[in-house]
């Protein structure tokens, strides 16, 4: 075994070392300097590593770098996710400077938060480059637990304890399932190394193993019905962490699913159908649940479920293509999924950081109490608007590009596989269009209630500092760049698929789409918009323009409370799947003829959470309560139990032999 | 390229005329003389010369939204073929760009309505968001299903592939065109979904969203709604081009006859029906969707 250490790989290790070094700065004497230095060093390390991974990614020609006796191995898929993690970590880390300021003043334990956050970033990077099952599981556990501990920044709050427990419990279920999966794989191949699994074509029961992997990683990714922990954990996590959680950690679930697929490559077609249907359900109901929320972070968490669904649709399409040996379908399906993974990481962390800035200033996450922020913070609302348009999958930003690839995938499947496929693919296309329509409804609601109109509650001060602008600006420029110039990114995706998924030599279908058309259309669109803007300015000047009070049907005493609210905006849409959203409305009318006060409330509960998880937990607790008499304070009982257990074991082994 | 520019110019210049024709016929059917056919042109010019007034609570969104909506309509109309002319934007997958640019326009329309901060606009915006959701599947079950069946993903090629040589396919196309007609009524806010002429805010969808706009902004909004109407009319007419044989004379003839028939039909529909209750509109749209689904199923299983 040789440790391959040429110049480039040593640079990669050097980047990791810088990140590790940042941990030591946490022990500086003052809280403020500890946060500042550790974070700065970490950002430098991340930027350095990002530079190296971009270089690797664009020059990669399919070779892998085995390091440390093959424990770590970097192929193109790993490189892509490494790139994604580092890309998202940098803006979120920059946001830390502004986010933790408040907590430093409050004298909270920010050092431990920094420690957990840096370890979280490092362990997430380790996960994607690990090539050994045990190393993978250790890193996975480290990632889950540092995430959990980081969530406990405001540990004394009741909701924080509740939400983080959901995360904690879900993480342990995942690890448990992953242990089973990797032990089965070890049993079948006699190896712990991922590349051995990948080479081994004779893995029996591939479907069982894949479904185990899909279950385990799917809980992390947040497919419905395993999504219930997401809307509980995201709102209570510190915003930095929720941005990272939504941007990166749930993508590690997607990475896991991709990796599992690569172990077991030829899978029967029905697995693809199963995945694509689960994903479509996740996408539609994820966004519908989002529409019913008033808590901005909970809403964004449900939107993650939606986008994970879209990624899953692409992945399922790829599986169907693979089962039918159709190259273009595979390329478009997996390609769309991978690109959407990157895109979602970008705009979701953008939106989370935006919501964090609002929370810092207003001290509430309830969007019904916001409004009119655009008059206080114009650039924040522009950044948020860019993120919202991108997440709705609308042109000219990055969300459109990946959804476009998936749509082309549907068309290609219909064309390639004929038979009954056109009808089925049409149904999925309609489903995706429905998701798009709902996302438009949801994000127009979010944008207009938070930013537009007039303030529903008085805003005392609204401060945005330079770090917020830098991180938001970085992320939104990424949205614009990928949207306007998709060509290099699409080629990159094509490369990953070429080297890791299917081998092909000719120009793939991804490259035959005329991507330059999009650049041309979007650039001419924006330049024409600028021209018309100036024409409009000219006419406004010539024929004058002014601002007056909005028309109120002759009523002059309009107050901010008379504006449309988030619940009234979304009411008609929420009424449709009422029984699934568990959408309740409560109106209290006083008995008088001229009532002085009304009370109205509407809220939605999660079906899986309130109908499955909580009853299950309660039943489990009842059963455990019944056998609680076994748990005594006297140690002699325990010794007795141990003896009984040993006796049963020996008896069993005696019978067995 | 030249063909595309010509067809774009035709769309831009003919669109107010089409709206004027509908209004004229509607007036005739209701026993009035009505405004001249060229009235929309005068109105547009008048609007340019008016003072632009924005609500005091409005922001940059109100400033940029009319421009982007107008440009979206221009770009969308350059995807649709006029006659046998190849449109300006035509590549594989432009059908998705078509649907999504319209989505962008809707997004900004809703935002600009909510920007006013008045509950009238809010009402319209909420309705627009709701009904758009029902309108989306109609598009995919009509034009989208032709795309999936023919295997083409470019608007120009989709309409080029329509060959009326098979009785089953002919019926399929005709039913598709009915779905598109209902879609057009919804998207262009005509009766029976929306009434463009009413002034009772509680009953409007599109009109109430632009209630507080005036001057150049309103000019852009009005012009874009005229163009939108023309786009859907063009789609409707494109179903009936015998694209197999390309004859420019025939093309112009069908173009004129198509526009005349459509304007008469729209005027007739608006004369004899009244606006539906808001609660009934989703059912009306679901009806169009189910026509699309049934049509597709029948075509597939009859083949």
From TrEMBL, chain A:
The keyword Nucleotidyltransferase does not apply. It comes from the Bacteria. InterPro entries: ComplexI-like_HydComp, ND/Mrp_TM. It holds the Pfam family Proton_antipo_M. One of its GO terms (cellular component) is plasma membrane. Keywords: Cell membrane, Membrane, Oxidoreductase, Transmembrane, Transmembrane helix. It is a multi-pass membrane protein. Residues 130-411 form the NADH:quinone oxidoreductase/Mrp antiporter transmembrane domain. The chain crosses the membrane at residues 12-28, 40-58, 78-100, 112-128, 134-153, 165-184, 204-224, 236-258, 270-292, 299-322, 342-362, 382-408, 420-443, 464-485, 518-539, 635-656. It is found in: Cell membrane; Membrane. One of its GO terms (molecular function) is oxidoreductase activity. This is Proton-conducting transporter membrane subunit. The lineage of its organism: Bacteria, Pseudomonadati, Ignavibacteriota, Ignavibacteria, Ignavibacteriales.
From TrEMBL, chain B:
It is a multi-pass membrane protein. Keywords: Membrane, Oxidoreductase, Transmembrane, Transmembrane helix. Its EC number is 1.6.5.9. One of its GO terms (molecular function) is NADH dehydrogenase (quinone) (non-electrogenic) activity. It is found in: Membrane. The chain crosses the membrane at residues 6-23, 67-89, 95-117, 129-150, 162-185, 226-243, 249-269, 281-302. GO terms for cellular component: plasma membrane. The keyword Nucleus does not apply. The keyword Transmembrane applies. Pfam families: NADHdh. Its main location: membrane. PANTHER family: FORMATE HYDROGENLYASE SUBUNIT 4, FORMATE HYDROGENLYASE SUBUNIT 4-RELATED. This is NADH-quinone oxidoreductase subunit H.
């Amino acid at each position: 075994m040789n440790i391959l250490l040429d110049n480039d790989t040593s640079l990669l290790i050097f980047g990791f070392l810088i990140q590790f070094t940042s941990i030591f700065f946490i022990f500086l004497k003052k809280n403020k300097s500890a946060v500042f230095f550790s974070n700065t060093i970490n950002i430098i390390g991340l930027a350095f590593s990002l530079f190296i991974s971009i270089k690797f990614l664009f020059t990669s020609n399919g070779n892998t770098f085995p390091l440390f006796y093959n424990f770590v191995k970097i192929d193109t898929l790993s490189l892509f996710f490494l790139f994604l993690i580092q890309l998202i970590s940098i803006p979120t880390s920059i946001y830390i400077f502004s986010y933790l300021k408040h907590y430093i003043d409050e004298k909270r334990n920010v050092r431990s938060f920094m420690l957990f956050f840096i370890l979280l970033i490092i362990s997430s990077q380790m996960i994607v480059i690990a090539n050994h099952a045990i190393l993978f599981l250790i890193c996975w556990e480290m990632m889950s637990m540092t995430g959990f501990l980081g969530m406990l920044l405001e540990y004394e709050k009741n909701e924080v304890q509740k939400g983080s427990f959901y995360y904690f419990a879900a993480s342990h279920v995942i690890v448990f399932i992953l242990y089973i999966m990797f032990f089965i794989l070890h049993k079948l191949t006699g190896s712990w190394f991922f590349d051995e699994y990948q080479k081994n074509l004779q893995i029996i029961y591939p479907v069982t193993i894949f479904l185990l992997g899909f279950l385990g990683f799917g809980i992390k990714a947040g497919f419905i019905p395993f999504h219930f922990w997401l809307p509980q954990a995201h709102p209570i996590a510190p915003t930095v962490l929720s941005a990272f959680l939504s941007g990166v950690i749930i993508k590690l679930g997607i990475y896991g699913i991709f990796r599992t697929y690569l172990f077991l490559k030829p899978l029967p077609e029905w697995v693809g159908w199963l995945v694509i249907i689960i994903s479509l359900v996740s996408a539609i109901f994820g966004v519908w649940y989002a529409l019913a929320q008033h808590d901005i972070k909970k809403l964004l968490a449900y939107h993650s479920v939606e986008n994970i669904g879209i990624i899953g649709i692409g992945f399922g399409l790829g599986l169907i293509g693979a089962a039918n040996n159709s190259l273009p379908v595979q390329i478009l399906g997996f390609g769309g999924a991978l690109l959407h993974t990157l895109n979602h990481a970008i705009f979701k962390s953008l939106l989370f950081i935006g919501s964090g800035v609002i929370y810092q200033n207003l001290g509430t996450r309830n969007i019904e109490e916001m409004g009119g922020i655009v008059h206080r913070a114009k650039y924040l609302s522009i950044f948020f608007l860019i993120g919202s348009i991108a997440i709705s999958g609308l042109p000219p930003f990055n969300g459109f590009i990946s959804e476009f690839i998936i749509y082309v995938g549907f068309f290609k499947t219909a064309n390639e596989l004929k038979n009954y496929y056109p009808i089925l693919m049409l149904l999925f296309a309609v489903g995706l269009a429905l998701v798009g329509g709902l996302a438009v409804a949801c994000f127009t609601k979010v944008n207009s209630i938070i930013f537009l109109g007039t303030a529903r509650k008085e805003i005392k001060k609204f401060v945005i500092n330079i770090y917020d602008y830098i991180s938001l600006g970085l992320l939104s420029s990424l949205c614009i760049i990928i949207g306007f110039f998709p060509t290099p990114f699409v080629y990159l995706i094509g490369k990953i698929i070429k080297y890791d998924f299917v081998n092909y030599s000719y120009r793939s279908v991804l490259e035959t789409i005329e991507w330059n058309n999009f650049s041309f259309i979007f650039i001419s669109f924006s330049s024409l918009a600028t021209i018309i803007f100036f024409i409009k300015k000219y006419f406004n000047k010539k024929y004058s323009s002014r601002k007056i009070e909005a028309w109120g049907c002759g009523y002059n005493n309009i107050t901010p409370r008379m504006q449309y609210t988030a619940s009234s905006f979304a009411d008609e849409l929420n009424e449709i799947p009422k029984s699934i959203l568990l959408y309740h409305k409560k109106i209290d009318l006083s008995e008088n003829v001229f009532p002085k006060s009304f009370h109205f409330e509407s809220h939605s509960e999660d079906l899986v959470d309130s109908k499955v998880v909580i009853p299950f937990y309660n039943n489990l607790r009842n059963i455990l309560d019944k056998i609680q008499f076994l748990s005594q304070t006297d140690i002699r009982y325990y010794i007795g139990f141990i003896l009984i257990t040993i006796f049963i074991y020996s008896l069993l082994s005696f019978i067995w032999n | 390229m030249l063909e595309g520019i010509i067809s774009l110019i035709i769309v831009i210049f003919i669109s107010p005329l089409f709206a004027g024709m509908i209004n004229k016929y509607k007036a005739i059917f209701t026993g009035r003389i009505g405004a001249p056919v060229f009235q929309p042109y005068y109105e547009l010019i008048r609007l340019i010369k008016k003072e632009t007034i924005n609500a005091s609570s409005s922001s940059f969104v109100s400033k940029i939204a009319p421009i982007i909506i107008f440009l979206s309509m221009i770009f969308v109309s350059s995807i649709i073929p006029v006659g046998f002319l190849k449109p300006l934007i035509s590549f594989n997958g432009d059908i998705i760009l078509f649907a999504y640019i319209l989505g962008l326009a809707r997004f900004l329309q809703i935002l600009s309505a909510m920007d006013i901060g008045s509950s009238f606009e809010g009402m319209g915006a909420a309705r627009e968001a709701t009904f758009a959701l029902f309108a989306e599947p109609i598009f995919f079950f009509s034009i989208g299903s032709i795309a999936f069946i023919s295997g083409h993903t470019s608007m120009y090629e989709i309409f080029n592939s329509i060959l009326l040589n098979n009785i089953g396919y002919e019926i399929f196309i005709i039913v598709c065109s009915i779905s598109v007609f209902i879609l057009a009524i919804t998207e262009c806010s005509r009766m029976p979904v929306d009434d463009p002429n009413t002034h009772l805010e509680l009953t409007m969808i599109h009109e109430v969203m632009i209630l507080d706009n005036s001057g150049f902004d309103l000019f852009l909004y009005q012009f874009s709604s005229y163009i939108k109407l023309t786009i859907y009319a063009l789609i409707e007419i494109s179903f009936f081009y015998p694209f197999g044989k390309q004859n420019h004379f025939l093309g112009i003839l069908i173009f004129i006859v198509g526009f005349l028939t459509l304007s008469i039909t729209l005027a007739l529909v608006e004369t004899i029906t009244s606006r539906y209750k808001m609660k009934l509109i989703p059912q009306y749209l679901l009806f169009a969707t189910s026509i699309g689904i049934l049509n597709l199923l029948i075509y597939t299983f009859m083949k």
